[in-house]
Amino acid sequence: MENRVALIGIVVENPESVEKLNGILHQFGNYIIGRMGIPYPKKGVSIISIAIDAPMDIISSLSGKLGMLKGVSSKTVYSNV
Fold first, then answer.
1. 23-79: per-residue pLDDT in tens?
2. Pick from 20, 5, 13, 15: nearest CA to 56
């Protein structure tokens, strides 16, 4: 299966989910190109962006696992390459 490059945007509203979120990201670490996290205490959220290069099923699996975490929302944008 051909790899795609994608960007996953994550907003964390529940700090209790951070440990599980980091565990999930660690599982997919071989595919992650880079990660940037920005805490935003004024609104009580953290914003994370993940650049990933992986097959579509891997990206979908990661996105699905993130979406199941309480207080975590994510969206994925795929490149055309």
1. 999 999 999 999 999 999 999 999 999 999 999 999 999 999 999 999 999 999 999
2. 5
Q: For residue 28, what are the contacts with CB-CB under 8 A and spacing of at least 6? A: 52, 54, 58, 62
Tell me, what DSSP letter sits at residue 76?
E
Distance, CA of 21 to CA of 16 (rounded, Å): 10
What is the rounded CA–CA span in Å between residue 37 and residue 72? 14
Residues 6+ apart with CB under 8 A from 17: 69, 70, 71, 72
Determine the angle formed by the axes of helices 56-67 and 18-27, rounding to 10 degrees.
170
